[in-house]
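Ticket #4471: structure export looks truncated?
Reporter: QA, pipeline team
Priority: medium

Steps to reproduce: submit the single chain below to the structure queue and open the exported record.
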Amino acid sequence: MNTSAKMEQQEVLRVKLEVLKREHRDLDAAIDALQERANADMLTVKRLKKQKLSLKDQISNLEDRLLPDIIA
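Actual output as written to the record:
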């Protein structure tokens, strides 16, 4: 893979990472808003939390691809 293609791929990964982080923040806000309500649907809250964890895993995977561990 040439340098230009590799840089393009990294830019795509960075954009995707930012989108996932934004979605994660939005879910966090939605969960907080639901939990503040007296009649919050706990099943919905549970589903949103599960989705949030999935996003966190995807974020971690992308971060690992962008910044691989260097063993010295």
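Status: closed, not a bug. The export was complete when the record was re-opened. Leaving a note from the reviewer for reference: The radius of gyration is 17 Å.
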